[in-house]
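#struct-help
A.M.: can someone run this one for me? Single chain, 307 residues.
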Amino acid sequence: MDFPPESDSGILHSSSRTSRPRLGIPIDPNMDQHPNSYLVPSKPRRTRKYSIVDFYDPEIMACDYRGRVLEDIVDWSDTRLEESHNYIQVLFPLPEPSPFNDGASIIDQETVEAFHDRIELRLALTVPFNRMMDFYGLPIDDIPSERRTPQNFPAAGRQTWVRRFDHNHLRLTRIIRCCRVLGLTDEAARLWEALQDVQRLHGRISANSMMYWRRAATRPLHIRPDQDDDENIAGMEFLQAFGANDTDSDSAKDKVKKFGRKIAKARKLATKDRKTREKNASARANEAAVDGKETSDEKDTSFKEAS
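D.P.: on it. C-alpha cells below:
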C-alpha cells in the first residue's frame, strides 16, 4: 500500500474508511513535535471551535483553537512547518472534519458564501497559500509552465516531498480542495498544473498521489478525493450547488484582476518583512554571542588580576 490510512491532512489516501489511527495508537493533534510524539502520553484535546471567517478577516484576525493568529503560523520556519501537524487543518479547512484534529473548525455553507462574496477573505487565504508554495519550492507565479525545468525547483523543496510518498502529499491534496471550495480556483488550478510539472520533470511521485491531486483539482466539490468513482455519492447539498460551477463569476473575476497588483504587492511585502525579521534575529543572536564572549573574557581578566 502506498499510503497510510490517514494523515494530518484529514484526507484519506487509500480505500480504507477507518477513522482509527494506524495500529490503534492515539495521536495527539495538539503537539507541535515530531510525528512520533504520539508515543508519549497525550494532552487533553481542545475542542473549542472558532470562526474560519473571523480567523481570515483582516479586521478581526481571530485566534484559532490554540490561540494562534494567521500571521503567527505563516511566520514559522520551514522546519516547524514540516514537523508540526496541527496547523494545516487551520490554514486550509475542509467541509469534512479531520480525524486527527478535532479542534479545527470545518467549512459550512455560511463560510463558503462569505469567501465567495468577500474578496478580502480570499486575499487573506492567498497568504498561507503562497507561504506553503514557498515551503514546497513551487514557483507557480513566477515561471510559466513551458519554461519550468528541474533547476527552477529549489533543492530544499525537492528533498522535502518529491518522492514516492510523503505526508506532504496529503497536505497538498487538502490545499487544492480547500482553495477550490473557498473560491481560489485559479490558485488550485495552478498548483495542480505545477504538481504535474514536478512529476514530468522528476518522475518520483506515486500514481496514487497523482490520482488524489487530480481528483481534488477536477472532481465536483461534493465528492471527496478519497471516495471511489463508482460510489453513489450525494454529498452536501451546498457543495453540490457550488460544485456545479466552482469558477468565479465574471464580476468576481473582475474584482480579482483589479486587486491583482495589490495581491502581488502584499506578497512581496510579506516576503521582504519575513526576510528582515530573520536577518534581525540572526543579528541579535550574533550580538548575544559576542556579548557572551566579552563577558567571559572580562571574567578571565579579573581572575588573572586577582591571582
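A.M.: thanks! The first helix runs from residue 52 to 56.
D.P.: also worth noting: Residues 24 and 157 are 32 Å apart (CA to CA).
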